[in-house]
What we know:
The protein is built from 13 helices and 17 strands. With 463 residues, the protein is an alpha/beta fold. A hairpin with an 8-residue loop joins strand 16 and strand 17. Helix 11 (284-298) runs parallel beside helix 12. It is globular, with a radius of gyration of 24 Å. The protein has an eight-stranded mixed beta sheet, with helices on both faces. The chain has two domains: 55-211 and 263-462, 3-Layer(aba) Sandwich (Alkaline Phosphatase, subunit A); 212-251, no CATH class. 33% of the residues lie in helices and 15% in strands.
Amino acid sequence: xxxxxxxDKFVEKYPHPHLHFSRRPDLSRRRFFEVAGAGVTASxxxxxxxxxxxxxxxxxxxxxxxxxVIFILLAGAPSHTDLFDYKQIPDQPASFAxxxxxxxxxxxxxxxxxxxxFQAGNFAIVRSLxxxxxxxxxxxxxxxxxRNPGGVLGNISPNIGSVVAIEKGDPKALFPAFLALNSGNCxxxxxxxxxxxxxxxxxxxxxxxxxxxPDDTKNTGRFxxxxxxxxxxxxxxxxxSPMGSEMEDxxxxxxxxxxxxxxxxxxxxxxxxxxxNVAYGSxxxxxxxxxxxxxxxxxQGTRFIQITQGGWDMHVNIYQQAQMPNMGKLLDDGLGxxxxxxxxxxxxxxxMIVMAGEFGRTVGPLTAxxxxxxxxxxxxxxxxxxxxxxxxxxxxxDKGANIVDPGWSRQRVVRPEDIEATIYSALGINWTTIRQxxxxxxxxxxxxxxxxxxxxxxxxxxx
Length: 463
């Protein structure tokens, strides 16, 4: 059976992406006493519900080629046929200058730096990615958690970055394992402890805010006295707290924040010069790319960095200067320089960059409003971390409307869950992991249905 047919039959039989969270199982009062009446005592039931978590895993071959991941979310859904699955139409500006590079057509005028990187074999494009839906907020979250936010466990599912933090983070490290840049609305740790939440920062040349105190020049004197007073007053509530993990999380936050204060390593990693800013385009996206590079160079424990670049929701006048031409330049300047500098610093081979939007855009001629509407076919971008670049995996038809060649071994379209599995495999995380510590005791799958091998990494990225 063809891979796509087999996949479709499974989804039809087990429509997991479409199960709403309200259909979750629960233990009602009536059911509790039914179970108790059958001979199961309340004390035994309580011990089962509070038992230490166990983990189920299946033997799989992980790539384990990356130490770090930079995940770029192009919020608003960029047009795939104007960027990395380029299809020329008469309305497009001549300045886009499409050209065939390594057998793939790219807009070399719109993305000159990235086109040069593709020519040099520095990134690969997946052109067979297909979204599950066409709602911005839903699918942006779906992209970050690798499953339907409205499905079972969806609203308590952790960000991919939180999974990386719990698997690869060092609790003794100075920096948080999961850093979110320009990503105020990024998904959080779900049911995981707050210690695995994203550390959200909007980069600026002055570095991290509030890492010094106006009443002190270093972590001594008045600030140290206040810190000691804080502990004297409420350590009994925050350390081994009788009030539970929430208060202990507060203590973790305080300790982590104190480690970032008056620290020259922090200042160097989170601040930048005017010249560095210019090299990355002098934009908020460029500053996020620059900060990501400097944080990884500091090597203080950060393993997953999410960057969000909004502005891709182009329903109207997509080719006006402020729209695609401007956004393309911002992307090209920031990401192009990031790849250049990662290669120069030696971090490129151990850092995988993954980039995608939540879905694609309608194809062919523009709408009556001069824009493009929502469409399921989209692209994904992969660089570094052992990825063999200079190639396009998968292909669409001449309009970009239909995927005619999936381009990988599963012989079906690529889904966000497959992107998630690819990230985990690159980092040496077993994507078939099923944790037995979720609040509903259903078992939390790192990648949904991993026990059926429904989803998996795109191994073709490694050649």
